[in-house]
Amino acid sequence: MGRKSAPSAPSTPHARQRRQLVKSVEKGRRVGASECTPAKIRDAINGASNTTKFAYAEYNRNYDLVLTTVGNLPVESALSNIKGMTKALNDIGIFGFNISLDTATVNIVINSIPLATSGDRHRTPTDMNIDAPAWTELESELTAFNPELRLIDRRKWIKSVSALEAENKERSSIIMAVEANDWLLSEIKKPHPAMAVYGLRCSFQKYVRKDASTHCERCLQYGYHGGHCRMPSICKYCGNQHHTKDHMCGSLYCTAGKGKPCSHSIRRCVYCDETSHFTVDRHCPTRTRARSPTTAEKGKAPAWPANPTPHK
User: Fold this and answer.
1) pLDDT of 87 strictly over 90
2) Among 200, 229, 201, which Cα is nearest to 304's?
3) CA atoms lying within 13 Å on the CB side of residue 240
4) Counting beta carbons within 10 angstroms of the beta carbon of residue 253, is it exposed (0 to 12), middle (13 to 18) or buried (19 or more)?
5) What separation, in Å, do the N-terminal and C-terminal C-alpha atoms of the chain show?
6) Domains of the chain: total
7) 109 and 200 share a domain?
């Protein structure tokens, strides 16, 4: 008879698998901040649990109360008693919260979502306000036909509801917080990621926050990150019409790789015409002013020069 292999040691759960979040339904508000201390909330939840106990209770930067289990115990068993924990917090005067796992999240933009479903052509954008029943319907649609998608939090339309109504839009894009699971991270790396929404194929991508200092890597213009830019490419190293990543030095003896600057590269910024830095360099005065605009310039991206010329 062969020798029996020794039993494998139990794996230690990841730190996130030991944490539970208590989140207020009101943005920017701490759960229980005015009613009681984090320790009192922890004790109330521990009293409602027969198995998993929590040792630590502290607020994170998003104002969520983070509860961490004793030792290396995973938190899943505690979540099976959410009703009991909810009642325990209600008994000490705390209402308006959600209890969930501490999962890694990412904000995504889902594009071209219809503002009216096939069975309701008279829906207006106002019906898709954040607390409207239409949001619940949309969430049900997303999770039913994209089974690997895990919604974490509602965010907002890419434009305000008033702007959508004024433009009489039939479709728009939304920003949503979702779980950064293996499926999502794999899909988002594909050339054209998409998901099913109301029978349509709607593209999506990771949401990138933009401001006046955000610049496009393709055309070097400020004000957007350029995920869907169709403008001609401009190289920030030589000013010619090719992407910066395709830049190659013209010198026969240059050892710099593709897409890299070298000693032969002539530094010149097309925005401020200075020779101390390349275009969109982080030390560029134009970019610095865009990051810290005055009241008169607030929200205005630097204008692209009328006739930019290649570097000599």
Assistant:
1) yes
2) 229
3) 12
4) exposed
5) 81
6) 3
7) yes
From residue 14, give the alpha-carbon distance in Å to each of 60, 73, 113, 185.
18, 10, 36, 19
Question: Is residue 7 assigned to a domain?
Answer: no
> Quick check: is 179 in a domain?
yes
pLDDT band at 9 (very low <50, low <70, confident <90, very high): very low
- How far apart, in whole angstroms, are the C-alpha atoms of residue 196 and residue 178? 15
Structure tokens at 279: 């275009």
Percentage, residues of the chain above pLDDT 70: 80
Whole domain around residue 40: which residue ranges?
A: 17-101
Alpha-carbon Rg for the chain in angstroms? 26
Structure tokens at 214: 């955000």
Phi-psi region at 76: left, alpha or beta (left = phi > 0; alpha = psi -120 to 50): alpha
CA distance 199 to 203: 13
| SS3 at position 182 | helix
Mark whether 232 and 310 lie in a shared domain.
yes
Closest CA to 304 of 218, 230, 220, 213: 220
**How far from chain centre, in Å, is Cα 269?**
31
Give the amino acid at 104.
Answer: A
183 shares a domain with 153 = yes
Angle of helix 38-48 relative to helix 82-91, nearest 10 degrees, comes to 130
Residue 114's closest CA among 176, 193, 203, 198? Answer: 198
User: C-alpha angle with apex 127: 122 to 131, nearest 5 degrees?
Assistant: 160
Provide the pLDDT for residue 118: 47
Q: Give the domain-ending residue among 206, 241, 263.
A: 206
Do the beta carbons of residue 18 and residue 76 sit within 8 Å? no
Contact (Cβ atoms closer than 8 angstroms) between residue 56 and residue 68: yes
Q: Is residue 235 part of a domain?
A: yes
Length of the chain: 312
Structure tokens at 163: 């702007």
Q: Which of 20, 18, 14 is nearest to 45 (CA)?
A: 20
Please indicate, yes or no, whether the overall pTM of this predicted structure exceeds 0.70: no
Which residue carries 């998409």 as its tokens? 194
